[in-house]
C-alpha cells in the first residue's frame, strides 16, 4: 500500500455517508476512540444490482467472523474487496443493523430539534438516506457488515456483543472493483450500553500495491482464488464491451 493518503475525513458518531471508491484503492477505517461500530453496505458501482452477499461471503470461506485474509463477495461470486490488514481481529456479518424502534427503546428518542447533531439516528434510516442518493431504496438493503464489532456465542447458541477492540484499531479494505460504499456509525443492534454508544471513525483512502504472486486474501482458500478469476473475467469482459480500456 502506498503510504500517501489520497483523502481522509472523520465520520462523526451516529452519522452516515456514501462514496465511490476505485478498483486498486485501499480504504482504511480507524476506530480512534474505541467502541465504534461501522455499518457497511457495498455495491458494484457499474452494476448496482450486483451487491454485497454476506451469507456467501461467510459460507465460501468457512467462517463466522471476518478478519485479515478474507474477501467480501457479491451476489455474482465476484470479490468486491479484500481485508488485507486488521488490528481489531473480528468483524460481524450476521447481526444486521439497528432501526428506529430499537434505538428509541434502548436509548430514548432525541430529535434534531432537541439535540441538534447529538440526535439519535439509526442504521437502517442512515442506509436508506444514503441509498436514495444513488437511486436505490428499501429493497436494496441487504445483510450488512458491522466493522469493529465482535459477536460471540455461548453454549446455548445465544449471541452477544463482546468488549470492543482497543482504541486506534484499524481495518484495510483493498477494493478489487469500482464500488459504492455506504457507511453509518450507529450502534450495533446487540449493544446494551446504558448511554448512547455511537463513536466516530476516521476513513482514509490510499493507492493499493500491485497484486503480487503471493497474496494473503487471494491465497486464503480455493474459493477466493476462484473469486479473483471471476473478477478477471468480469473486467476483461467490461473492457472488451467498451472497445478497450484499463
Would you kindly provide a brief summary of this structure?
With 246 residues, the protein is an alpha+beta fold.
Q: What would your notes on this structure say?
A:
With 246 residues, this protein is α+β, with helices and mostly antiparallel strands. The protein has one domain. The chain is 20% helix and 26% strand. It contains 5 helices and 12 strands. Strands 1-12-3-10-6-5 form a 6-stranded antiparallel beta sheet. Strands 2-11-4-7 form a 4-stranded antiparallel beta sheet, covered by helices on one side. Strands 8-9 form a two-stranded antiparallel ribbon. The longest helix is centred in the C-terminal third of the chain and has 20 residues, at 222-241. 40% of the residues are buried.
Anisotropy-based shape: globular
What's the SSE pattern?
A: EEEEHEEHHHEEEEEEH
Helix content: 10-25%
The total count of helices amounts to 5
Instruction: Output the structural class.
Output: alpha+beta
Rg over CA atoms: 18 Å
The figure for the number of domains is 1
What's the total count of β strands? 12
How are the strands of the largest sheet arranged? 1-12-3-10-6-5
Amount of beta strand: 25-35%
Q: Uncertain runs with pLDDT below 50, 5 residues or more?
A: 240-246
Mean pLDDT: 94
Major β-sheet profile: 6 strands, antiparallel
Terminal CA distance reads 20 Å
Amino acid at each position: 500500500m502506498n503510504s500517501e493518503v489520497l483523502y481522509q475525513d472523520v465520520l462523526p458518531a451516529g452519522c452516515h455517508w456514501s462514496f465511490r471508491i476505485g478498483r486498486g484503492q485501499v480504504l482504511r477505517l480507524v476506530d480512534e476512540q474505541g467502541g465504534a461500530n461501522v455499518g457497511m453496505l457495498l455495491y458494484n458501482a457499474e452494476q448496482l444490482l450486483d451487491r454485497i452477499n454476506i451469507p456467501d461471503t461467510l459460507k465460501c470461506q468457512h467462517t463466522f467472523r471476518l478478519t485479515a485474509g478474507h474477501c467480501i463477495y457479491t451476489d455474482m461470486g465476484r470479490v468486491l474487496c479484500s481485508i488485507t490488514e486488521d488490528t481489531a481481529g473480528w468483524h460481524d456479518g450476521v447481526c444486521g443493523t439497528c432501526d428506529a424502534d430499537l434505538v428509541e427503546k434502548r436509548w430514548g428518542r432525541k430529535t434534531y430539534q432537541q439535540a441538534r447533531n447529538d440526535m439519535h439516528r439509526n442504521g437502517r434510516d442512515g442506509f436508506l438516506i444514503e441509498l436514495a442518493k444513488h437511486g436505490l431504496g428499501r429493497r436494496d438493503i441487504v445483510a450488512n457488515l458491522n466493522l469493529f464489532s465482535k459477536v460471540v456465542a455461548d453454549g446455548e447458541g445465544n449471541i452477544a456483543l463482546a468488549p470492543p477492540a482497543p482504541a486506534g484499531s484499524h481495518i484495510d479494505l483493498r477494493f478489487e472493483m469500482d464500488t459504492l460504499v455506504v457507511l453509518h456509525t450507529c450502534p450495533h443492534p446487540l449493544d446494551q450500553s446504558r448511554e448512547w454508544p455511537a463513536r466516530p471513525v476516521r476513513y482514509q483512502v490510499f493507492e493499493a500495491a500491485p497484486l503480487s504472486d503471493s497474496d494473503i486474501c487471494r491465497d486464503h482458500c480455493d474459493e477466493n482464488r476462484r473469486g479473483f478469476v471471476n473478477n478477471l473475467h468480469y473486467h476483461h469482459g467490461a473492457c472488451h464491451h467498451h472497445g478497450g480500456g484499463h
